[in-house]
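User: Hi! I'm working on a homework problem where we have to compare a predicted structure to a textbook description. Could you give me the structure for the chain below?
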Amino acid sequence: MANIFYPLGVTRKITRAESLIDTIIRFIIFDIILQVFEAVLRWVKKSSELRSEYLADIITNVRLPLMTPQYLADVVGSEELIKNSLPCR
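Assistant: Happy to help. Predicted structure tokens:
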């Protein structure tokens, strides 16, 4: 992301291009995090009897705090694997 932090006393206008670049980068990061989360779920579901015990260890490495509150509530919160895993709740 474009660096928007400057030493004290130094101010600068953020250009529209920089703001657009920051927005694009945030979308890319968000999209990648969703893909990782969904890949983890697909992997566990392929053999849930064997793999569900590893879900909590794996999911803690997915950057859930960077997801939107709506996605967390609607998708993550309603996922049965997550609801059935005490450490994941």
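For your comparison, note the following. Helices lie at 16-46, 48-51, 55-59, 69-76, 80-83. The chain has a mean pLDDT of 85. Good luck with the assignment!
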